[in-house]
Specification:
Elements: H1 11-35, E1 43-46, H2 47-59, E2 68-72, E3 77-80, H3 82-99, E4 105-113, E5 116-123, H4 130-133, H5 151-161, E6 165-169, E7 176-183, H6 198-202
Parallel strand pairs: 2-4
Antiparallel strand pairs: 1-3, 4-5, 5-7, 6-7
């Protein structure tokens, strides 16, 4: 017996169902990462090739085909968890790309200071309203219809696992700047602070691909 082919009128509905299933899968994945974060597994690697990998993943989405991304600054050698760093960078790039509608530009600046690497990601989007800036790292806060609002909290936790920080600023000239600092050599003893709502999320029993952030903006 042949299987009935969907009518043209059904295709948009089916695509919407698939999109919603994918979003649910992302949310479950992020909840598991947030509730049970694994410790970093450090390896030694060059940062610039990792950034290029994240940019290549970003460009796989046709919506970002016109996006301009530039990297400035010296290459830096890190001893860190490459998968976690790559996933964090990709999450920040996705936020910046969505802020510009995939049509703007993103500038990535690398700096080495003392025993730390400082990575800044600046987009030329409209920026984030002042009343929301203090909430973007709160678990489950998001301004997007898709996503669970865990991408940025997970990204901040990754920075903290590497002895660093992740902050956000909006210059008067416009746009948004994410600034992530990590130790050049990750310390296994460093433990992140528990963000607001951590205990609740930890008890909720409900990808680089092993620990990826969701694909929504602002988390």
């Amino acid at each position: 017996m042949s299987r009935r082919q969907p009518a043209d009128a059904e295709l948009p509905v089916m695509r919407d169902v698939v999109t919603r299933i994918d979003a649910l899968g992302d949310l479950i994945n992020d909840l598991m990462i947030f509730a049970r974060p694994r410790p970093p597994h450090p390896t030694t690697f060059e940062l610039r090739p990792l950034l290029l990998e994240a940019i290549a993943i970003l460009r796989r989405d046709p919506a970002n085909a016109a996006l301009k991304v530039a990297i400035d600054g010296p290459d830096v050698t890190l001893t860190a968890d490459a998968d976690l760093i790559r996933a964090t960078v990709l999450n920040l790039l996705l936020n910046s790309a969505q802020a510009t509608g995939g049509q703007g530009s993103i500038a990535i600046a690398i700096e080495q200071r003392d025993q730390r690497c400082i990575l800044k990601i600046l987009d030329n989007g409209p920026g984030i309203p002042a009343e929301l800036r203090g909430r973007v790292f709160e678990p489950f806060f998001t301004t997007k219809a898709r996503g669970g609002g865990l991408g940025l909290p997970i990204a901040r936790r990754t920075a903290e696992l590497h002895g660093g920080t992740l902050t956000l600023t909006c210059p008067d000239t416009g746009g948004t700047v994410f600034t992530m600092t990590v130790l050049l050599r990750a310390l296994a003893a460093v433990r992140p602070s528990e963000p607001p709502g951590y205990q609740t999320a930890k008890n909720y029993d409900s990808d680089p691909e092993e620990q990826r952030g969701p694909r929504d903006g602002l988390g």
